[in-house]
Specification:
It is built from two helices and no strands. By secondary structure, the protein is an all-alpha fold. α1 runs antiparallel to α2. Keywords: Membrane, Transmembrane, Transmembrane helix.
């Protein structure tokens, strides 16, 4: 596997995991929802970048 693709997948997983953990741990809903959406957007960006480099 290409190191760039592997690094992209790891970054996407870590970003998504951080977003989900924040969503589950925080009580006020606005902050975790914003962080979760940001994590999803970051994951989409990383996937697009890794697919473009192929």
């Amino acid at each position: 596997m290409d190191p760039k693709v592997r690094n992209g997948m790891v970054a996407m997983f870590l970003t998504s995991a951080a977003g989900v953990a924040t969503l589950l741990l925080e009580r006020p809903l606005i902050v975790p929802v914003i962080l979760f959406l940001g994590a999803c957007l970051a994951g989409v960006y990383v996937v697009k970048q890794s697919l473009r480099l192929r």
